[in-house]
Structures are given as structure tokens and as C-alpha cells.
Amino acid sequence: xxxxxxxxxxxxxxxxxxxxxxxxxxxxxxxxxxxxxxxxxxxxxxxxxxxxxxxxxxxxxxxxxxxxxxxxxxxxxxxxxxxxxxxxxxxxxxxxxxxxxxxxxxxxxxxxxxxxxxxxxxxxxxxxxxxxxxxxxxxxxxxxxxxxxxxxxxxxxxxxxxxxxxxxxxxxxxxxxxxxxxxxxxxxxxxxxxxxxxxxxxxxxxxxxxxxxxx
Length: 215
Fold this sequence. Notes:
Layout: E1 3-4, E2 22-25, H1 31-38, E3 43-44, E4 55-57, E5 61-65, H2 74-81, E6 86-89, H3 93-102, H4 114-125, E7 129-135, E8 141-150, E9 153-161, H5 166-180, E10 185-187, H6 193-196, E11 201-204, H7 205-213
Parallel strand pairs: 1-2, 9-10
Antiparallel strand pairs: 2-4, 3-4, 5-10, 5-11, 6-7, 7-8, 8-9
């Protein structure tokens, strides 16, 4: 069953999501609703060209990376040791989210449209969303990622690469920095071969909620 949201600030019990994780439709992308969603493992994901209202998901099995378990391959270590790239946090959030959108905007089902960009930029402005940037020697942005950061959990939203391994370098920098900051969990939302190769694995929703609630 997929629930219909209204103007009130609420979500149904996340465990009632269907087999694909779809839980609800409607509502808005306000800061308050987004924060309520992420605190319960819920996130918006919908094709902005095909769907007028937000669609909210909460998968029963959660694909995550524990920062301390990030897998750095020999080739990635070699690349990083060359010091060809510099890294930063929140230096250019707007450019990162724009690049994430631009590289996928023509794809069927593209979800990072104008409304989503505005919503997460406002989350960033209020201190709840963060970006990682990768810069080359000419100070050109060549990779990065962004997501929502609440307490000891980072909820990854999207990443991009303009050079080989640009997004991998951003994720490794996020994980190593997050460990130093006391972070315990990076939520990947969806399984990909790319993320699995870097240490991503499934945990139950119950364990997931225990970890993101233990602040």
C-alpha cells in the first residue's frame, strides 16, 4: 500500500513500505519534511518529468557503507598517493549539485530537477546537507558528491566524475574524514556495483534505525 500525504507534516510507519520500498506520495520538499523523512530512513526519489508530487521510499534492506570499512583498492591508493587532486568540504555545494544534475538530466527517469536542487540547497544553507569536492591542479572541479548529514549518519544523494575515479576519490575522502568526525554510517540508498566494490553491504532496517538514532 502506498500512502497519500497531505499538507500536514507526517509519514506513515516506514515498515509499511511495499516490496520495492515505495511508502508514500505527495507532501512537499520542505526542510522540515525532509528532516523528518531522513530521521526515519525515508527519502524522496521520483522522475520530475513524469511525476508532479514527490514519491517517498524506505527500503526494508538498507545498502550502507560503514566508514571504517571503506575499501580502497591498490590502484586507488596509488592514484591518491600521487597527490594530483585536492579535496574540500562545502566549498562549492551549488556547483556539485548542479554537476550531479547536469550529467543525468537527459536520462529517462532523471530525478534531480529544479525543485530537488532548490530543496537540498536550502538544506545545505541551514546546515543539514554537505558536499565533498575534488579539484585538479588548475583548481577545476572534477568530482564530488553531496548528501544529508544528521548526527553520525551521512545520507548520500548523488555523485559525479569528470575524470576517472573522481566520485570514488570523493567517497574515500568522505569516509576517512567522517571517521575522524565520529561518523558511523553512510547510507547509499541503492545498491550499485560501484558502491559494492567499495565496501557497501546490506543491513536490516532495524539495525539501520538503531545506528542512525544512536546519536
